[in-house]
Amino acid sequence: MQDRAAIFEEVQKAMVELFELDADQITEDALLYQDLDLDSIDAVDLVVRLQNLTGKKIQPEEFKAVRSVGDVIDAVEGLIG
User: Fold this and answer.
1) 31: helix, coil or strand?
2) Other beta carbons less than 10 A from residue 12's beta carbon
3) Which of 4, 8, 29, 31 has the most Cβ atoms closer than 10 angstroms to its Cβ?
4) What are the tens digits of pLDDT across the range 48-62?
5) Helix or strand or coil: residue 68?
6) Integer Cα distance of 5 and 16 in angstroms
7) pTM score
8) C-alpha gyration radius of the chain
């Protein structure tokens, strides 16, 4: 899971499984709360899944600025980079 496309695939797969979203809805520009209708509990579930995928602990303050799927990918890149 090194390049951005692979990270996007993993994030997309996690969001489909966790939130029963249609994969077509999940684009880098999609906003988590407005477009995908996620809430703060969903965000916590996503952080836990990403921690399991990366093997790294995500600090809550690092995830507070995340607004879009692209931001999630950026955060994961920062963790594994």
Assistant:
1) strand
2) 21
3) 8
4) 898 888 898 887 777
5) strand
6) 16
7) 0.89
8) 11
